[in-house]
Amino acid sequence: MNELPRILLAEDNENDVELTLSALEEYRLSNRVDVVTDGVEALDYLYRQGKFADRPEGNPVVVMLDIKMPRKDGLEVLKTIKQDPVLNTIPVVMLTSSNLDRDILESYTAGVNAYVVKPIDFSEFVNAVKNLGLFWALVNTPPNG
Amino acid sequence: MIDNLEKDKFTEHHQLERAEEIAQIGHWEIDLNTNKVKGSKGALRIYGFTKKIASLEEIQSLPLPEFRPHLNNLLKNLIERNEPYDTIFKIERQNDGEIRYIHSVAQFDQKQNIVFGVIHDITDKKNIEDRVKELDNDIRFITDNTSDVIWTMDLKGDIKYVSPSIYKLRGFRQEEVIGKNFREIVTPQSEKVAKQLLENFITEMQSAKLQNEPIVEIFEQPTADGKTIWNESVINPIFDDKGEFKMFLGVSRNITDRINAEKAIIAREQELMTAIEATGLGLWDQDFEKNIIHRNLNWYKMLGYKESEVSQKMEGWKSLIHPDDLAKAMEIAKTHEDGKSEFFSVEHRMKAKSGEWLWIHNWGKIIKRDKSGKPLRAIGVHLNNTEKKNAEKELLEKTQKYESLYQNIPVALFRSTPAGNIISYNKKAVEMYEFDSIDEFLNQPALEFYANSENRNYMLEQVRTYGELKAHATHEKKKDGSDIWVKTDYKGIFDNEGNLIYIDCLADDITDKKKAEDALIESEERYRMLVEKSPDGIAIHRNGKIVFINDSAVKLLGGIDKEQFIYKSIIDHVKDESKPSITTKFNSFLESNEESIPIEVVFVQLNGHEVPVEIHANQIEYQGGKAIQIIARDITDRIKSRTVLLENEAMYKAITENFPKGIISIVDRSGNFTFIEGQNIQEIGLGNVEIIGKNYKNVLPAKIITIIHSVSAKVLKGHQASFEVELNGKFYTNSMVPIMDTDGQIEKIITITTDISERKISEQMEKEMFAKLEGEVQYKMNELNEQAGRLKESQRALTFLLEDVNDARNELVQANKNLEAANNDLEAFAYSVSHDLRAPLRHIDGFSQLLENLIKDRTPDAEKYFKKIHESSGRMHNLINDLLSFSRLGRKKLVISNIDLQSLINEVIKNYEPDLTGRNVEWEIKELPIIRGDLELIKIVMDNLISNALKFTSKNNKTHIEIGTSDIQENQIGIYIKDNGVGFDNNYAHKMFGVFERLHNNQDFPGTGIGLANVKRIIRSHKGTIRGEGKLNEGATFFITLPINL
Question: Which of B140, B144, B559, B717 could, after both became Cys, cross-link B564 (CB 3.0–4.6 A)?
Fold first, then answer.
């Protein structure tokens, strides 16, 4: 059996990484989750360059992006993905603390597939992440390539 | 498992596609985030795309240009105001360019920012409707031209005469109708109309109000074969020369088909409206194993049943299908079940809840069979085809009706070629021209029908030029050569290059009518009566003698009896000096048919008195020979008024001659004097010359000519002009007024010259007085200047003060800038709050819960602490959100509109109703005004105040909340909200409106303390005020004022 496609999580805050992973684990989603901690690393991962030059081929089934990250923020990563003819079919979900109108608007203008404000309540947070994983990793059918 | 899931998905998709195909329906969507357009296979087929739709523009280019602005508008309203649309337009189909009618319905999903909709190709239905309309037009062309019935009746309504054409109209013979009363031969409904008509006529005649106008009315009349027809009657009252009523003369025309056609059009329009309203498609899904049929809501809606009223088994369908259609439908279904057809498609009737039979197009397909081929599952579509069926039936009926009309209509119809060959005709055509057989008629060249063959050439020329020739009366010949008068309507049929190929002719026998008309019009007696009673004197002169003379003429010549003048010459009564010229004129009339010119002469009466008269004379035909008709009118009065006119003219001249201190002169367009009068002519040196007829340039002093030159352009454009001139030590003012003729051309210019020397002299004296006064004024001015010097010093002192103020203002500007910077800092802070402060909160909540999960055996205390951590993080989250909303609110720009406070309050209260179950709340809402403000913000204010009122009364047994208006001051509206809750200590009232300030603890009344801060901020931005009044345990009242003009 082939390895299931991976999920890419870009998140600079290690606490958030840990909570997100434990939320995904709760559903026993068997996709592997690759974690990067800033926007530059996220793009290196997608383009298989820098420290990710040797990673196996294949795009992740979904990219989850925090907005506020060092070096390159989530909005810049989103725009790069959606303007790239090869990467633009990868579903991108913003998973962020910001519920500012301008962030939401800018994300949708750039072509984001979903925008999720991280709930403060942990059980709601678990539900939100679980549903994201379920939908994008299992239910959604991305175009080939 | 995934395998099954995908299969089902595929089947459903496929099922939808086939449903769309059969119903000629498609769906589409536009993703406004990406502007991408998607269309289902059905949509692609309707638009004629052979591949996917590339862009929005590609779709927008399909509708015909006249529909595009409307469609763009609909799309705009859909996106901007979320107004769904439902419209019909025409497109040019992409693949074959065919014009199709499209019914399109669309909605907007605001959440996803997607516009989606359904389109339906309704061209076939439209085409049938159009064909029905065309047929209606053809029928009208014929019925509008059927023969008329002419009749007369008396005041009681008794029919005295009716033309034989009544037989064609109603199937009764002439003699059956004559003698009956008009009221007996119409239906009871029309009888009332007829009775009213006669009564009105008599009343009006008695009160002399009668307008001598024809009465037009529509009556319903029974025919010999028991049907009824509608006829339109034009009724003319006829009076004799003494003004006595003689009879009614009526002309009736059958307009039944026109009325029926109008009714049919109205009925069809209503059908169309209904069709547009409901284009629902019913879906069914049959499970053979369980014998269950699932149906969608439309399926039930189409037939008008509730779901519970139709059995979900096969029997449910069988019980509704028309017994006559069941066997056929079952047979077609069986063929498909046996695998002998790809799908089944059948039209059958079904009984609707209303009892009506609907035509249903039922399409179905078995989509699942077991290994032996036994069907397991089938799906299908019900489409309500009743309208199409009915329209088809109607079309058939119309076609038959048209055929039958063509053959049986009581007018002759035939079609001929321009060369004159008849190629089609109806029965009446054969009868009208009295041919023995139809073959005989066909061989008759069209030309031979005409009494004068030129008439046919005239008709051909008219039809070629105008396409038709209407209501042309021609004299024609029947087969045996006897005369027939025919009213014909011709219509040309042209090929694509515009060449005339056929002429359709509709001919109506009007011989009867023509005869009746002739009898009335050519009656010599009527003419004589008219002439006899004329107020003008009329005489007929033949061979130099009077052969006829009317009463007025006898009177005019001073006689008593006609015999006094018969066989005498009228010339004897003309005054001697005019005799020769009148004799010559009469002779010239006899020789040529020249137009009569009125001649004024003087008649000498028998007693020698002279009467001035105006005569018109003209040649007429009288008893088979040429004669002169002389009409003479007494013009004594006219001559009198003419004399008065001449007298007026003389008076006018006398006035102008004596015009005080001036001259009145008139010149024509070229500047020649036609009139000049006035006392001052001498003074300007014109007294000794003849001026009339001379040009002003040759007469007037050079000085004046120059001035006239400069103003004449203005005057010749139709404006008045005036100027002053000094001449020989005197001053004159001149007003020039252009006079227009009836065509608006300037005919002459009147100049009124007035001597104003005296006025000038008094003006000069005034000037001298002024000069003297000026000296005195100068002295006063000097005094004033001194005072001004002193003022200047005080001014300087003021300037210093002003500079101080300016400095203060600059400081203020700086402070404002600082404030702005602080605001920007606040915004940055808010952003940071929203992001950075929330993350740690989330982590606290998250890890404490993970920790909780980890510790299996928890003491009650540990449980309590976990709960407190969770609650505290939740509360802090609320505080952050409120703080953020508070800072946002402050920056929002106001959108001011009229707000109906009454309905706003009702809306807010309604939102709280679900939370109030179990509470006893009494609302007392007074009459509330319309206010000006930002709707969104005012709603936040009212919501906060009402929610506070409800919160602080939550411990009451009985809650009373009162909302009304208070102390309305000038330009302010006051509103109060009063509750009977726990209230507050008035000493702390000022603290309530601060951010995070609370007067009660969180356990009793939960809250973040931001609500009233928000309220205050909003009211302040509306330039209003808010204050609260309270007493512990006795309730609180909040007072708001808002400006009226915002």
Answer: B559
